[in-house]
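Structure, all three chains, one model.
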Amino acid sequence: MEIAYYPGCTLRTSAKNFESSSIAVADHLGITFKELSQWNCCGTVYSLASDDLMKHLAPVRVLIRAQEDNKENGLDNKLVTLCSMCYNTVKMANHLVKNDEEKLDTINQFMDEEPDYEADVNVLHFLQLLDEIGIDRIKENTKKSLEVLNLACYYGCYLLRPEEASIDEEPEAPSIMERIMEAAGARTIDYPFKNECCGSYLTVTEKKYTAERTYKIISSVVNRGADAIVLSCPLCAFNLDRRQKQAKELHANMKSIPIFYFPQLLGLAFGINSNELGFNMHYVDPRPLLKEKRLIKR
Amino acid sequence: MAETEKITIYAMGKAYKVPAGLTIMSALEYAGYQYIRGCGCRSGYCGGCATIYRREGDYKLYTDLACQTPAEDGMYLVQLPFVPANKSIYDLDKIEPMETTLVEHYPEIVKCVSCNTCTKACPQDLDVMYFIQAAKIGDFKEVAELSFDCIQCGLCAVRCPADIAHYHVAQLARRIYGKFINEKVEQLTKRLNEIEKGVYDKELNKLMKMNKAMLEKAYKKRKIEGTK
Amino acid sequence: MVDITLDQDKKDFIAEIEKLSGQKIMRCYQCGRCSAGCPLADYMDLLPNQVIKYVQLGLDKEVLECNTIWVCAACYRCSVVCPKDIDIARLMEALRLLILRDDIEKMDINKIKKEEYAELPQIALVASMRKYTS
């Protein structure tokens, strides 16, 4: 199966391991990500003002590229994303223009150099694609069970809110990531912060706030016996991983734990070469844990 | 002699009758304007003569080079001799190229909303928006390749709603690409060394002492690579 | 007799916010669920429910001076728990835009240090500039 794929900026810089591990996992399951022929940054945050069409140009341009590429390649009119923030921005912009013909018209007229957007692309997150393919397929492909790992699945905000963008039928009690990780053998914990904000972009101007959020979230999962956190957002990953440094300066007793992108661990379960999974790109090195659990060799 | 057909152009709002078939630059000169700044090679290479205009009955603002664009009847023109765009000061020898280097020097590039106005404004038809997108993720090669024909006219910067100085960003990217990333050309290094050592000083001094006629003669007699 | 109707300029402010946010601010009955759930409320000088009350009273200067609108990270936690269906994240955005659209920037991009640029992911820089600059 081939599907149009939108990477986004951060997957080409600080989250290269998220992209390489996702592509490897998808490939293993017979899914080929066909990267858009040309793409731009989506803007990362969906504009919430009722009149700010300018900020919707970027995600709609991405959707137009997907529409045109899909026509040319004869693919189903779908677009898959990995980054939670790209997913949310593109999904919400799509939702807006699908339901507001006047705004769609204005945007199409402004972008007179592009073909009109027909508001027909279906935006998916990779987790939804995995869920669709089926838990059985993940089980079948699991060669090395993750049963030795106790994981805290962290959704953050943008996979679940607003409701129109939720990848889970129950945004307030999500289970899609748990289902997928459990299919690969892992155990998962329940905890109160799984769909709460990590402090997001305040990490630029108010480092301390994100460090405090990181402390709260990590302490909560450690108290419940988690070995690591799995997630799907490069900004959550940055805050929960890199900001452990500042969190430790504020709370010396905090225990460090590694932060994974979900495909990195699926990749391990499928027996994909760990070079493709990018365990060397973390602030809190996950390799000691993985060695201890005998998931990677020395 | 037959009467030349005349057209009406508007320079900063004032109407002038000028002969048809001139470039914007020549038409303005015909109307009595003298270029002191905002004019260079007159061949479309130097990027000095950025111009903004509108056609009568059309709401759009167009951007072009005055020396390359024919004047048309009913054009409303203004010249742009200089663009006061932000320019980062750097010492190339002290730069360590990283994915974030361009953002560090020009942080405003992350404000790009992908409106594509820059691309539409570019008289060189470059994919300006996409090289800014590449700059955002530190893809020096892509920026260098997409912006290779940039002539630094500054029209992109004038039209950008995010106040980006695209042409300066691209120049830094090309410099970094040339210095740190692109394959080194052996002959160039060799020639630069020869110049530094003064191998050509004598010949250059000789040229500098020649008058115009002698220079012309020498120019016509010069050896061209690949010819006999 | 006491006149309890709002002045016209206060009514105009409320109307402007309702238009920009697309939300019916007057519906709020101060249950406080937005503030109870807010993950960043600890750092706010006005709680989200207080911000709404200030807007309802037309206290434009006071509400535009609070740090709450800049501490809000648009996580939608408040929006999904509001029993009166007010999308409070949109209210916060409208208040931010009233300031940003006067060409006042809440973040000086030239003050970010070189080491910070080297560390911060694009996603954080783009998002913060979208929220703090116009």
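The mean pLDDT of chain C is 95.
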